[in-house]
Amino acid sequence: MKIIGSLTSPYVRKVRIVFSEKKVDVDLELENVWAADTKIAISNPLGKVPCLILEDGEAIYDSRVIAEYADALSPVSKLIPADSRERASVKTWEALVDGIMDAGILARLERTWRPAELQSSAWVDRQMGKIQNSLRQMSEVLGENAWCHGNQITLADIATGCALGWLLLRFPDVKWQVQYPNLDRLYQKLLQRPSFAETEPPAA
């Protein structure tokens, strides 16, 4: 199997960490989806990463689908609970955290792709508001708990760590570490895991 992706995408990092935690080997094929000569559409018509290519050539996307597929490949370190209510809680947390990254990417594209005179500050503010609201919700739900859900690492923690790391990379002006020290405690704990250390994105 191989993952088509980039080193800075938080979605790619999420699935790479899941495979690492599951002790399942998978190759990484680097692809810049923004380059004119990108070939990602051959595997994913949406032109997005990550995309998982199975042994028989079938392609699986997006990150939520890949993470769920990977979790079923090995009994090691179950990351998505079997119980339907707990499963929904973990997947809802993942959706919230993915929403942070979705909003961040939209804000970043507005700032970096559109000419300055055409940029909409209202649009950027709306996306940044989504990020702040989500961070506040995450902090309130986490409270003083050691993990996002239950008493061990789950997909919720992995997704959270990837989003927080990406915010540090792309939006250092969002001072979430100061605002929400409980999120920072979780983040620092996740950084001690080999799966996170080995997938830390290069500096911008």
Automatic annotation (TrEMBL):
Domain GST N-terminal: from-to ranges: 1-78
GO biological process: glutathione metabolic process; L-phenylalanine catabolic process
Species per Swiss-Prot/TrEMBL record: Polynucleobacter campilacus
Any one GO molecular function term: glutathione transferase activity
SUPFAM superfamilies: GST C-terminal domain-like, Thioredoxin-like
Annotated InterPro entries: Glutathione-S-Trfase_C-like (IPR010987), Glutathione-S-Trfase_C_sf (IPR036282), Glutathione_S-Trfase (IPR040079), Glutathione_S-Trfase_N (IPR004045), Thioredoxin-like_sf (IPR036249)
Residue stretches making up the GST C-terminal domain: 83-204
Superkingdom assignment: Bacteria
Alphabetized UniProt keyword annotations: Transferase
Organism lineage: Bacteria, Pseudomonadati, Pseudomonadota, Betaproteobacteria, Burkholderiales
Record Pfam families: GST_C_2, GST_N_2
Protein name (Swiss-Prot/TrEMBL): Glutathione S-transferase
PROSITE patterns: GST_CTER, GST_NTER
